[in-house]
C-alpha cells in the first residue's frame, strides 16, 4: 500500500465517507497523509497532537479541524489517552451550491479561509458540539439504512454541517492563529523555510545546518513528528502545487514540472504517479 495516499471506494453518486467515533492509538493510526478529498475531523475525547500542512496542534475534546484536499496531515495520539474522533471525507464537487440569490455562498469557504490563514482548527462551544454530534449521528443513520432519498439526505446534512462551520470560521473569528503545540522551534522554522523555498534545491544537510542540529537528528525528528521523511514531505508539497497548476493554468506539463522544482520531466512523472496515483494528463482530464 502506498503510505502517502488514502484511497476511497468512490461511489460517484455519493462521494462521501464517514468514519464514526474511531479510537486511534499509536498502534492503530494509519500512515495515510494525502488525498484529494476534503476532510472534517472532530475530536470526541482523548489527547494527542495533529500535524497539518506545516503546523502542529494539540488535540482535546470539542476541537474540529478543517483539512482541504491535498493537504499533508497526520494524527499523533497520546498512548495514555487514545483519541476518539469522527472524520467526514467528501469530494469538493459534491457540495458545490447552486446560486439561488445574489448572495453567492460557497460551502467550501471555511476550508479556503483555513488555507489562506494557515490555521485549520476550530474550537467548538458546548452547544455547537452537541449540534454537530447529533448531525453526524443522523448522517451515519442515513448511510447505514439507505432508505428512499438517502443520497439527498446525506447531501443536506453535510451542507448543514458546512453551513455552521462557515459561520464559525468567518475570517473575523481567526485573528492570531496559534497552534498551542510545543513542537521544537527549529522544526517549525524549518517547515516555514520549506514552504517559502519549495521550488529551490532543498537539501537535508543545508536544512539541518540552518536549524543548528545534526542531519541525523533533523531527519529522525522530522519523520517522527510529520510521519514523512524530509524528501517525501518536499515532493508531496511539490505535487500538491503541480495539481493546482494543472487545474488552474494552461501551462504544459513540462513547464509545470520546472515551476514545481523538478529537475527532469521523467522524474516528475514518476513522483506524480507515486503521490497522486495517476499521470498528470489523466489527473487533469479526470477533474
Can you describe this structure?
- By secondary structure, the chain is an alpha+beta fold.
- It has 2 domains: 158 residues, Regulatory protein AraC (Jelly Rolls, Sandwich); 102 residues, Arc Repressor Mutant, subunit A (Orthogonal Bundle).
- Helix 2 packs antiparallel against helix 3, helix 4 crosses helix 5 and helix 5 packs across helix 6.
- It is globular.
- It starts with 15 loop residues before the first strand and ends with a helix.
Which features does this protein show?
17% strand; Jelly Rolls; alpha+beta; 3-stranded antiparallel β-sheet; 2 domains; globular; Arc Repressor Mutant, subunit A
CATH superfamily of the largest domain: Regulatory protein AraC
| Strand order, sheet with most strands | 1-7-2-5-8
Which stretches are low in confidence, meaning pLDDT under 50 for 5 or more residues running? 27-31, 173-177
Our measurement of the CA-to-CA distance between the termini, rounded to an integer number of angstroms, reads 24 Å
Q: Judging from the principal axes of the Cα atoms, what is the shape? A: globular
Largest sheet: 5 strands, antiparallel
Structural class: alpha+beta
Topology as a string of helices (H) and strands (E): EEEEEEEHEHHHHHHHHH
Q: Please identify, by name, the CATH architecture of the largest domain.
A: Sandwich
Please state the CA-atom Rg, rounded to the nearest Å: 19 Å
Strand portion, in percent? 15-25%
What fold name goes in the CATH topology slot of the largest domain?
Answer: Jelly Rolls
List the domain count as a whole number. Answer: 2
- What's the number of helices? 10
User: What is the percent of helical residues?
Assistant: 40-55%
Mean pLDDT: 87
CATH class of the largest domain: Mainly Beta
Amino acid at each position: 500500500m502506498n503510505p502517502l495516499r488514502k484511497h476511497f471506494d468512490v461511489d460517484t453518486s455519493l462521494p462521501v465517507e464517514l468514519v464514526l467515533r474511531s479510537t486511534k492509538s499509536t498502534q492503530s493510526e494509519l500512515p495515510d497523509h494525502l488525498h484529494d478529498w476534503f476532510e472534517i475531523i472532530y475530536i470526541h475525547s482523548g489527547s494527542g497532537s495533529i500535524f497539518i500542512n506545516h503546523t502542529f496542534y494539540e488535540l482535546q475534546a470539542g476541537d474540529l479541524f478543517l483539512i482541504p484536499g491535498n493537504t499533508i496531515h497526520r494524527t499523533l495520539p497520546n498512548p495514555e489517552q487514545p483519541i476518539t474522533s469522527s472524520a467526514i471525507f467528501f469530494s469538493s464537487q459534491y457540495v458545490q451550491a447552486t446560486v439561488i440569490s445574489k448572495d453567492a455562498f460557497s460551502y467550501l469557504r471555511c476550508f479556503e479561509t483555513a488555507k489562506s490563514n494557515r490555521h485549520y482548527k476550530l474550537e467548538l462551544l458546548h452547544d455547537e458540539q452537541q449540534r454537530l454530534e447529533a448531525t453526524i449521528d443522523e448522517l451515519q443513520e442515513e448511510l447505514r439504512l439507505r432508505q428512499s432519498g438517502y443520497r439527498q439526505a446525506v447531501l443536506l446534512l453535510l451542507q448543514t454541517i458546512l453551513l455552521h462551520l462557515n459561520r464559525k470560521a468567518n475570517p473575523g473569528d481567526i485573528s492570531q492563529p496559534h497552534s498551542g503545540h510545543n513542537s521544537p522551534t527549529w522544526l517549525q522554522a524549518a517547515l516555514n523555510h520549506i514552504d517559502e523555498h519549495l521550488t529551490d534545491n532543498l537539501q537535508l544537510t543545508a536544512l539541518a545546518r540552518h536549524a543548528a542540529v545534526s542531519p541525523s537528528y533533523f531527519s529522525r525528528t522530522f519523520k517522527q513528528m510529520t510521519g514523512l521523511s524530509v524528501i517525501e514531505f518536499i515532493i508531496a508539497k511539490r505535487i500538491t502545487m503541480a495539481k493546482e497548476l494543472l487545474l488552474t493554468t494552461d501551462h504544459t506539463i513540462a513547464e509545470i514540472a520546472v515551476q514545481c522544482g523538478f529537475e527532469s520531466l521523467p522524474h516528475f512523472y514518476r513522483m506524480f504517479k507515486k503521490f497522486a496515483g495517476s499521470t498528470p494528463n489523466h489527473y487533469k482530464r479526470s477533474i
